[in-house]
């Protein structure tokens, strides 16, 4: 589908006037009943270099496409281009990233956005462009290509069916797929029972809630375990304490430590899980706004735990025990904690995202939940010299 009129792409500095950038999804998703508008205040904070954790190790530029060549025209698409120094230090692959891709069903608009992002990255010496990442791999990432019939859960992206063809026609090809699974607490319990019994029988494995009275120490431990666990996975970029604080933010204060578990082997912390209620449930009808009364509604929903679904945001076991029966037993203990917490209230829990190149986690998820409910794709292309 194409539309007439010239396309103008405007560059926006993060922290500047983001109104047009933030309004694009309201056009793109206007007729989508599953859309969950992001909270605008949170979006502005993470795109503000003075507040967003990403800008301590990265830089970005935002772009908005407008119709008819007018600077005051109607926004019809958006994209970000960013350089993640943590990624470059880890992989040394010359890859810059793009993200926040939302676009009407118009190839000319998509091409103009990707050309702008590619030019900005090329000017800064990048030789490849990979994404979408909003803003890093440790935030929302991937373009949704399956599972459009249900709303996304907390901290997962959302796309329209026409976006993947636009991306591919703009010259980007698949890099990796990310999968999301949904399991009932009862199903999780059936699979975890034998390994949980094995873990307890060893007398070596124990699990405890995260202690938010020692917030700084617990967050540092969470990040340390996660980075060790995921260090050999595709695309891994170290997670920082600032990033996890940005991700979880004020929500942990209302969940009172229920959100996290630490599993230990012989008294040494070896695994971590972060489970969050699906706060997309209450905010879906907020229109992106917290004021004047939506903030109180969100707090009340969290304090009273009025949710029907949740998501495992982080799950990892230190790599020194990967492949051993103890690793499976520790994972079972953690998932059993989800069952205990969610069985009386939650209809389902989402495990996502899971790399398609991680067969161990895929087996665990498929046994517990069956086929994936959503699929997200990361794309890349070379940045040829002008």
Plain-language structure description:
The structure is a single chain. The chain is an alpha+beta fold and 386 residues long. It folds into 2 domains: 175 residues, 3-Layer(aba) Sandwich (Aminopeptidase); 162 residues, Aminopeptidase. The strands form 2 sheets. Strands 1, 2, 3, 4, 5, 8, 9, 10, 11, 12, 13, 14 and 15 form a 13-stranded mixed β-sheet that branches. Strands 6-7 form a two-stranded antiparallel sheet. Strand 4, helix 4 and strand 5 form a beta-alpha-beta unit. Helix 6 crosses helix 12. The radius of gyration is 21 Å and the shape is globular. The relative contact order is 0.16. The mean pLDDT is 90.
Can you tell me the CATH class of the largest domain?
A: Alpha Beta
Mean pLDDT, all residues: 90
CATH topology of the largest domain: Aminopeptidase
CATH homolog superfamily of the largest domain: Gcn5-related N-acetyltransferase (GNAT)
Query: How many individual domains?
Result: 2
**Biggest sheet details:** 13 strands, mixed
Tell me the total number of β-strands. 15
Structural class: alpha+beta
CATH architecture level-2 label of the largest domain: 3-Layer(aba) Sandwich
């Amino acid at each position: 589908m194409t539309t007439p009129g010239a396309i103008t792409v405007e560059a926006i500095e993060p922290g500047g006037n983001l109104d047009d950038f933030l309004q694009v999804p309201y056009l793109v998703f206007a007729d989508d009943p599953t859309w969950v508008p992001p909270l605008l205040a949170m979006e502005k904070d993470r795109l503000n270099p003075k507040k967003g954790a990403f800008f301590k190790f990265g830089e970005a530029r935002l772009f908005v496409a407008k119709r008819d060549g007018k600077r005051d025209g109607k926004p019809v698409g958006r994209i970000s281009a960013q350089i993640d120094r943590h990624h470059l230090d880890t992989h040394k692959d010359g890859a810059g990233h793009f993200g926040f891709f939302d676009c009407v069903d118009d190839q000319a608009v998509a091409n103009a956005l990707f050309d702008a992002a590619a030019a900005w990255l090329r000017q800064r010496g990048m030789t490849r462009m990979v994404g979408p990442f909003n803003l890093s791999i440790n935030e929302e990432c991937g373009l949704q290509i399956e599972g459009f019939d249900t709303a996304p859960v907390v901290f997962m992206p959302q796309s329209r069916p026409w976006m993947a063809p636009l991306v591919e026609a703009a010259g980007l090809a698949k890099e990796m797929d990310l999968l999301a699974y949904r399991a009932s607490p009862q199903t999780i319990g059936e699979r975890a029972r034998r390994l949980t019994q094995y873990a307890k029988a060893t007398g070596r494995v124990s699990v405890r809630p995260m202690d938010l009275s020692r917030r700084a120490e617990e967050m540092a431990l969470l990040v340390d375990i996660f980075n060790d666990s995921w260090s050999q996975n595709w695309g891994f970029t170290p997670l920082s304490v600032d990033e996890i604080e940005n991700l979880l933010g004020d929500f942990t204060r209302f969940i009172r430590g229920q959100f996290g578990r630490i599993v230990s082997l012989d008294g040494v912390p070896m695994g971590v899980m972060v489970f969050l209620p699906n706060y997309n449930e209450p905010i879906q009808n907020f229109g992106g706004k917290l004021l004047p009364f939506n903030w109180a509604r969100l707090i009340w929903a969290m304090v009273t735990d009025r949710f029907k679904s949740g998501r495992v945001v982080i799950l990892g076991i230190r790599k020194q025990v990967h492949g051993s029966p103890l690793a499976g037993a520790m994972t079972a203990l953690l998932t059993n904690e989800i069952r205990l917490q969610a069985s009386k209230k939650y209809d389902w829990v989402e495990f996502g995202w899971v790399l398609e190149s991680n067969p161990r986690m895929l087996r665990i998820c498929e046994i517990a939940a069956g086929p994936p409910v959503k699929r997200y794709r990361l794309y890349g292309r070379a940045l040829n010299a002008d």
